[in-house]
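Predict structure. Chain length: 271.
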Amino acid sequence: MSLTGRTAFITGASRGIGRAIALKLAADGANVVVTGKTVEPHPVLPGTIHTVADEIRQRGGSATAVQMDVRDETQVQAAVDRAIDAFGRIDILVNNASAISLTGAAATPMKRFDLMHQVNVRGTFMCTQKCLPHLKKAGGAHVLNIAPPLNLAPRWFAPYVAYTMSKYGMSLCVLGMAEEFRADRIAVNALWPRTVIDTAALNLVPGADRSRCRTAAIVADAAHAIVTSDPSRTGRFFIDEDVLRDAGITDLSGYRADPASSADLADDLFL
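Prediction complete.
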């Protein structure tokens, strides 16, 4: 299914995975609503919603940039309204915006706990709710949460329980909403990378090893495969490399962040 004429609403799209998905969907003809908080260049992290929208236009695509904090109901509703004003429809919602703190219970300030739950869980729920009337009209819409498969092994909770709880909240949205919206032909799925993804934010992580990372392009290509598939495929938790292998792409070496590295990529899902 081509995305020509369809509209994708993407949260947290100013850089990293969100930017990569925006560029990929636009390259297949989608109108892209690039949302995020960043409108002025960050001193460390490059990219704004405007630079991403400009990239899309420079490549011949169609995009509009809308500043939006996923925690603010008024801003979310206004962004959805702007999307309809610009393109008349919303066919795809990608809930990518996320806050992270890989800290244990004792080391997680409550302000950071609140941020992760407000952005990851509440933001995902609210963006889906506000887009829902338009997704219902689309006739075969997709909601894609960048969220992990549910795994209750203690190893995923002990090191950073607050973060894991918040990301699993996004995963639980998939379980509930996929069934709730099934009759409306709205697919609700999750996508998660097998390995750490090399983004600008990785520069802020001391000792980050790019030899064990892949580029954001692998998530973008997998996202494209999911949102162009039959919407009856819903309520699933996809892993990026599995999606591509199912699509016949068996050589994933081009997605290495460090092409010269011979290190084995991580066997376990990164959370």
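Summary: Residues 94 and 211 are 28 Å apart (CA to CA).
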